[in-house]
Design goal:
Elements lengths: L5 E3 L7 H10 L4 E3 L4 H6 L2 E3 L3 H11 L4 E5 L3 H20 L7 H10 L5 H4 L2 H18 L7 E4 L6 H8 L22 H4 L18 H4 L4
Parallel strand pairs: 1-3, 1-4, 2-3, 4-5
């Protein structure tokens, strides 16, 4: 079993919940979003927020880790991400509460400027997707063995995951379960598993160690 951390750095609505569920079944401790240092310490696999926004700093702080970037056909991704961002808009944008500061920072950074006009624009969202993808590809351009790029809807994607993690795929009949389809976002919350790591403690976030280290 891989001992270093695995970061799932695909953008929201690219299949992060599905791959997290698969990683649980493969025996990893998994956090789908991580907002406390304890979560980072307990989880072998960390996805979504803040991983998709902070992958460069995480790469520096957690050397020898593996990174998985999830792609998705933009025609399918656009309506899904647009619906999510519209739902999140008020709580990401407000100064007097709403989502925690980590969520706000990550979404405002990735979808900048985070205004209604932009998150309702296919062109803006497509550019945000491509900018993020290009940043990932460029960062790992000299280290292809540390990055796996997959679309979980493709038949060979599960086998590629096992190979990337150096897991036995000789009798592989696995596939990614489709979760959170049709705009749903609660599949991870509803999932019960002993290896599931909570994102917060009693809803409280904490200072994350990798953010204390100055950026290069």
């Amino acid at each position: 079993m891989l001992q270093n951390k695995v970061f799932i750095i695909g953008l929201p609505r690219t299949g992060t919940t599905s791959i997290c569920a698969a990683m649980l079944k493969l025996g990893f401790t998994v956090a789908h979003t991580a907002y406390t240092q304890t979560t980072f310490e307990k989880a072998q696999v960390i996805a979504d927020t803040p991983a998709f926004a902070d992958f460069i700093r995480l790469d520096d702080y957690y050397p020898n880790s593996k990174f998985i970037y999830l792609t998705r056909n933009t025609k399918k991704w656009l309506p899904s991400i647009k619906q999510l961002l519209q739902r999140m808009y008020v709580n990401v944008s407000r100064d007097d509460g709403g989502f925690n500061t980590i969520i706000k920072r990550c979404y405002q950074k990735t979808f900048s400027p985070f205004i209604l006009e932009n998150i309702e624009s296919d062109e803006f969202l497509t550019n945000s997707y491509m900018n993020h993808r290009n940043e990932v590809v460029q960062h790992f351009s000299q280290r292809p063995k540390d990055l796996l790029v997959i679309d979980i809807s493709e038949l060979e994607s599960y086998r590629k995951l096992l190979t990337f993690l150096s897991l036995d795929d000789s009798n592989n009949k696995g596939a990614f379960e489709k979760l959170n389809v049709g705009g749903k976002v609660t599949a991870w919350k509803d999932l019960k598993h002993d290896n599931k790591i909570e994102s917060t403690k009693n809803g409280r976030i904490s200072l994350l160690d990798y953010l204390i280290v100055p950026e290069n």
